[in-house]
Structure formats: structure tokens, C-alpha cells
Amino acid sequence: MSGFATRAVHGPAEPDPGSALPHSIPIQQTTSFTFPTVRDGIAAFQGSGDYLYTRKANPTVRALERHVSALEAVPVASPEGPRAPAGDVDSLFFASGMAAISATALGIAASSRIVAQGGIYGTTEAMVTDLGRFGIEVDLVPVGDLAALASAVGRGQSPALVYVESPANPLLQVTDIAAAADIAHGAGALLAVDATFATPALQRPLAWAADLVLHSTTKFMAGHGVALGGVVSGASTLLADRIEPMRNRFGGCADPFAAWLTLLGLKTLEVRISRHVENAEAIAAFLRGHAAVTRVHRPDLDRLPPGQMTSGGPMLSFEVDGGESRALELIDRLRLITLAPTLGNVESLIQHPWSMSHVVLSERRRREMGIAPGLLRVSVGLEAADDLIADLEQALAP
Ligand code: PLP
User: Fold this and answer.
1) Ligand 1 centroid from CA 126, angstroms
2) Measuring CA to CA, which residue among 246, 235, 231, 115 is closest to residue 184?
3) Do 292 and 320 form a contact (C-beta atoms < 8 A)?
4) pLDDT tens digit string along 177-199?
5) Which range has the worst mean pLDDT, 6-10, 18-22, 94-98?
6) How do 161-165 and 190-194 pair as beta strands?
7) 76 Cβ contact list (under 8 Å, min separation 6)
8) What is the number of the ligand 1 atom nearest to the C-alpha of 196?
9) Residue 141: helix, strand or coil by DSSP?
10) Looking at the annotation, which residues are catalytic?
11) Is the pTM of this model over 0.90?
């Protein structure tokens, strides 16, 4: 099998059977498909597999799904030798990361129980908590705490789903995925991992025995801040039986143009991520040595089995001396790093989790999670590292 960089540029080794072979995937911007005869139309409604209606499937969306599957299936190097997903890998693309996560939670855990990490992306935590209103029992455990995860999973009704975000947003805590999978599987549950902050370029959870991996493709996978999207990957029967019906019935399907923009982004994922990481490491080193910075948060790779994450990734957060007012002033002083409530773009972005990405959670909950009013989250872009450091330096000056 070819390496990750080759798969990122070329997608799956085998073309989609039955599709034409254009050099670049065309955008099939259509809501529905027609049929040569009424018999073909009836056969499509009855499961022939022909494209029918774009809420259900579309060739451009399918090309993206096959591309992501090819990436998630690339074996991972570990000291014990290469690791690969246990079964086949398929993917489903959605209108946003939240559409992918909610359809996964509903499809796997309806009328059952979810044990999820709390202290993750605020809207995910709010959504999972909301599922309590829809007949799903929900328990939150602190992110990165495997003992708490095992204890919650072992208590009461066996969960159907264990939900992990690694690295977590915004404090970058990491979870040993193989250990979390053991805990989930020991109770008969499936393990889903949101790996948005790592992308498949740095971490492929299916190779570490997760059953499902999720990404907000809005972020590094699309990479240019122009297309919302979300993807879930796992065994084809699991996706087809449990998650695709949720996408079709609840309607979180993606637009073909978003799939096409995301495909363009994926082709440069490997090269972009290596530059994002190089810059993130340089900025983290600068911030660690700055007197006005009290803490720098990056993934602690020593907590993970060797090979799970191949670097600390493109994200970091840091706390400034002087709390909220100093953090907000710093954002206003920046000239190059841009204030925007997203991440994963080619441009460096900053935001204030206390008042922005995590404001959906109560103040008490934000404090419990460790989100300080002086915390800033940076999505490190592809600019020259020296320019980014100079921008931070002038903004941090007294
Ligand atoms: N997962 C993580 C880790 C995120 O940071 C986000 C958004 O910031 C999401 C999921 C949700 O993705 P989207 O905004 O595409 O719905």
C-alpha cells in the first residue's frame, strides 16, 4: 500500500467502479439523478445502488468519502510493527462536524447510554448533554482521565457508545486510544474518537482499535476556511446500518460543492500539516520562554503509546498573566494573527475560549474544565514562523 502523502494526493488506489475517470473530480451539483428507463428508477429506489437523490448519496460526496477512507486505512508505524484498522474502512460526509457527531451519537446510542469525555469542544459537550432530553442516558468524565472513564463505563447500564476527543479542544489533553478501546469493548460499547486537532496525517484512531473516527473537516482537512463539513469513518456495515439512516432521515447531508472544496484541501493535507506543526513547535518554544505567559498547552505525547500521534500537532493554547483583560487586549494588538472563531486555516488564527468557543457552557463548568479567563487558543498557520513570533512578541510587550 502507498504511503500517506501519496494517498492524500491521489485518493484511493482503485477508482470508484462504474465512474468516469476525469483527472479532477467534477462537481455534480444536482439534487437528484435520472434513469434511462422506469425500471432502472424503480431498481434504484429498491436498492440497486444507483445514485438517486443527493441527500442519500452523490458522486462528488462519494469521491470525498472514498478519499478519506483511503487515508484512515493507511497503516500506522509503531514499535511493535505496522498497525492497521481491523476491518474495512468506509466514510460518510456530513454538512458539518456537529452533523457527523450528532448522527453518530444518535445512530449508535439511541435508547441507551453514552459515556463521553467532558472538557472537550463546547458545542459537542452541550450536544451530548442535550441527548439526555431524547431518552439517552449521558455521563461525562474528565477528558484524558482513563480511570474515570473505566469507572463510569463499569457503573450502571452498559453504554452503547464511549466518546473521546483527542487532542481535546481547547487544552490539548490526549487519550490513549487503545486503552479507551479496551475499556469500551470490555463493556460491549463502541469507541468513537474525534481527531479533528490531529487529522489522519498525525493520528489514525481506527489503527488503535477505535470503532469510529470523526473529524470536523471544516478545519485542517479542508484547510482553507471555505467549506463546512464533517466526516465519520469506520466499518462499512456499521456506517450503513446505524449512521447513514440518521444522515438521510435527519438531513445532515453535505453539499457536493463543499465535498469538492474539501477534496482539494485533502490533496495538500500532508504538506500543510508538516508546516503547521513546525510553526506550532517554534511558537510554543517562544511562548514557554516569555515572562508574560504563565502556561503553554500542547499534547503530552509521553502519555500515549509510541506512534499514536506522530507529533504534537498544529494547535496550541496559552495563558497570559493578567487574566481576561490582558488576553483580550493581546488579541486586539495582534496585526498578523487573526481573530476568528475557527481553526485549521492556512492563516494563523486566535480566539478566546472563555468568551467565545466555550461560552455555551456555564462559568462554573468552564472553570471546572480548566479554561482560565486568560486562556488563548491558537491555530498555527503556514506563515513564516519568525513573523508569527514577532507578532506575538509585540502583542505581549508590556
Ligand atoms: N470537533 C472539534 C474538536 C471542534 O473543534 C469542532 C469545531 O470547532 C467541531 C468538532 C465541530 O465542527 P463544525 O464546526 O464543523 O460543526
Assistant:
1) 12
2) 115
3) yes
4) 999 999 999 999 999 999 999 99
5) 18-22
6) parallel
7) 82, 83, 84, 204, 207, 208, 307, 308
8) 3
9) strand
10) 55, 121, 194, 219
11) yes
